Amino acid sequence: MPSLTDSLIVVSDLDGCLIDSHTQQWSAALPVLDSLREHNIPVILCSSKTAAETIAIQNELGLQGEAFIAENGAVIQLNDEWDDHADYPRVINGDTHESIRKVLEELRQSEGYKFTTYDDVDDAMIGELTGLTPKMIALAKLQEASQTLIWRDSDERLSAFSEQLNNLGLCMMEGGHFWHVLDQRGGKGSALTWLIDQYRQREGRRPTTIGVGDSPNDVTMLDVADYAVIVQGYSKQPVVVKNDNPQRVYRTQAYGPEGWCEGLNYFLGSSV
């Protein structure tokens, strides 16, 4: 089991984990967040949200300056103290949002696929779909290297669409509510692997990692992490990890921030 005295990093998804996906609240997680901060344990946010959204949430949570992974691994922000790093302040993995947007539009026009993206709808519709405030909606639209997609076609057409994207070097990932299209060079697992290596190089040892996620797009991150918390979620698809050893993986009973605390308490003890 990991310990609060280890060289430890917590890597966490946001919606459905640290943040309630229905209310967008995180107050239930604050006691554990405070304890991790007191023990100087970094909490690396790792989600489908944009860098702009993530920075705003970091400020709310008291995690300013920490590294983070945005847009499902397509964007990696480095720790503020790493301003001597060659890739500071952030790394973009693969194609840009604009490039991906053009590919999706071409496929929609040529093949007649039925889907809606954030670029297609107004702020009011995004607010209705997500429960985000006007301020956070504006930040959610600042995608740098991915596209958020609401599929409105059949499952058979989804498979064909996904295959075409794969042939073009892109991929689809299912989140808690939406699909996300990004370059195949992205992904939470590859982003976390790269970020762990940066910590190893700077600190002289590989940190122990606890990953926290609730949906299929978290799987690669959970596979890379030394320990995995799978928070009870709402995805139609199961969260299936490669190494499901009970000593490594804990599945919570509670949802959202309560489940987030439950999982970390399981691995780190109630003192956290």
Automatic annotation (TrEMBL):
Domain of life per record: Bacteria
GO biological process: mannosylglycerate biosynthetic process
Transmembrane portions of the chain: none
EC numbers for this chain: 3.1.3.70
Signal peptide: none
Keyword field: Hydrolase, Magnesium, Metal-binding
A GO term for molecular function: mannosyl-3-phosphoglycerate phosphatase activity
NCBIfam families with a match to the protein in the record: HAD-SF-IIB, HAD-SF-IIB-MPGP, PRK03669.1
Name the record gives this protein: Mannosyl-3-phosphoglycerate phosphatase-related protein
